[in-house]
Amino acid sequence: MTRKVVSLSKIRKARARNEKRATADANAVKFGRSKAKRDLDHARQRQSEDRLDAHRKDDTE
């Protein structure tokens, strides 16, 4: 009955990475925005920038 020799620090680090990844996934679901909302915000931002640029005066005098 020989067992495999393992490094405890590697196991501890792997466990910490897995816990961190699980926390990140949970936060992404809880606080993340859907693609539709991101696209809508991007379109609104672009529209407001275009509207502002349309009111800009030309310096060609």
TrEMBL record:
A Pfam match: DUF4169
Location of region: Disordered: 1-61
Bias type Basic and acidic residues, positions: 37-61
Annotated protein name in UniProt: DUF4169 family protein
Organism: Qingshengfaniella alkalisoli
Phylogenetic classification of the source organism: Bacteria, Pseudomonadati, Pseudomonadota, Alphaproteobacteria, Rhodobacterales
